Amino acid sequence: MENEKNRYDLFCKKNYIPIFSKPWWMDAICGEENWNVWIYEKSGTIQAAMPYYMQKRGDYNYITKAPLTQNNGLIISYPEGQKNVSRQSYEEEIINAAVAFIEKMGLDIYEQQFTTDFQNFLPFFWHQYEIIPRVTYVIENTDDLDTIFGNFTSNYRNTIRKGKKYITSFSDEAPENFYHQHEKIFLRQNLPCPFSYELWMRLYNACHTHQSGKIVTARDETNTILSLAFFVWDEKTMYLLLGGSMPEHSSKQTYAALVMEGIRMASAQSLNFDFEGSVIKRINHAFREYGGIPKQYFRIRKVFNPEIIRAETEQRIANLQGK
Q1: Half-sphere exposure of 237 (CA within 13 A, CB side)
Q2: Which pLDDT score, from 0 to 100, does residue 278 have?
Q3: Which portions of the chain are predicted below pLDDT 50?
Q4: Which of 14, 42, 134, 200 is 20 to 30 Å apart from 182, CA to CA?
Q5: Comparing 2-134+297-320 with 143-270, is the CATH topology the same?
Q6: How far apart (Å, rounded) are the C-alpha atoms in residues 51 and 75?
Q7: In this predicted model, what pLDDT tens digit does every residue of 271-292 receive, in sequence order?
Q8: Is 183 exposed, middle or buried (CB count within 10 Å of its CB: 0-12, 13-18, 19+)?
Q9: Nearest Cα to Cα of residue 139 among 126, 129, 154, 149
Q10: Where along the chain do its domains lie?
């Protein structure tokens, strides 16, 4: 395990690695012992890597999406000047090798979300993997904030103007209090927070150490938090990872203005801005109001255990029958 991770460190130093696949992110989110990486090497050169999160659920073994992690999956290093046909053959060779590795692991379920850069899912499909599309929205050029604001819908431009009337300042917040304030967003919906305080603190501390994350709150003249967000970034992109309005102040509609502040932060660093979109209709519609480009990415999945296949099939039949 350690040898592969050491080789992955070398691969990371030579290639762009999205924040969600950086070794320090995986350590913080998964725990050092709960993730590993598959390396594809040819002629002494590492051509691809696939970090993955391992989880035990009862008697079942999973490779699955890590919490608070938009994507992992294959990261491929491409030769310069590679033609399209050669590129597809190159990808197919790597994916076939990855499939061979996955299917020797004795898994019950394999499930990972890949980056928006990965589009050639066909080799997985040919091996009977399920391909599930997802969509996010990305502002690819954040240099001209006036143009970006002009691309928002008129409804959101008005919402931002309205929200800014209540905001006196944008400021940081202690990570401990951020968690408890953010938890209220879920409690209002009678839902538990989907990640623990301990996980949040590990992630925050890791992002802080690597200068890759920032808490931002919108406050009024009494220093009351109206809305809050946590932004993370790598060398290319800033992501809206967490955020929302405080339930008791949701009518003031300050969250859109807070997101705009995040876009300003991305612009200052010449980064893309990724809204970490959702296929949930309400959330999807909210994100697309910002005028970003819809980007498709894929959840790739295969169930190996017949018991799980049977249970999932029975549940689908029950859903169809309205049970």
Answers
A1: 21
A2: 76
A3: none
A4: 134
A5: yes
A6: 9
A7: 999 998 777 887 788 888 999 9
A8: middle
A9: 149
A10: 2-134+297-320, 143-270
b/e per residue 185-222 (b: at least 16 CB within 10 A): beeeeeeebebeeebbebbbebbeeeebbbbbbbbbee
Residue 302 DSSP label = E
Residue 139 makes CB contacts below 8 A (sequence gap 6+) with: 148, 263, 266, 272, 273, 290, 291, 292, 293
Could you name the CATH architecture of 143-270? Answer: 3-Layer(aba) Sandwich (3.40)
Instruction: Check: CB of residue 186 under 8 Å from CB of residue 196.
Output: no
Give per-residue pLDDT as tens, 32-63: 999 999 999 998 899 999 999 999 999 999 99
- Which two structure tokens, joined as six digits, stand for 55? 């989880």
CATH level 3 topology of 2-134+297-320: Aminopeptidase (3.40.630)
Residue 302 has which token pair? 């295969």
Supply 71's token pair: 């994507």
Tokens of 137: 């929205």
Say how far apart CA 12 and CA 131 lie, in whole Å.
27
Q: What pLDDT shows up at residue 174?
A: 97
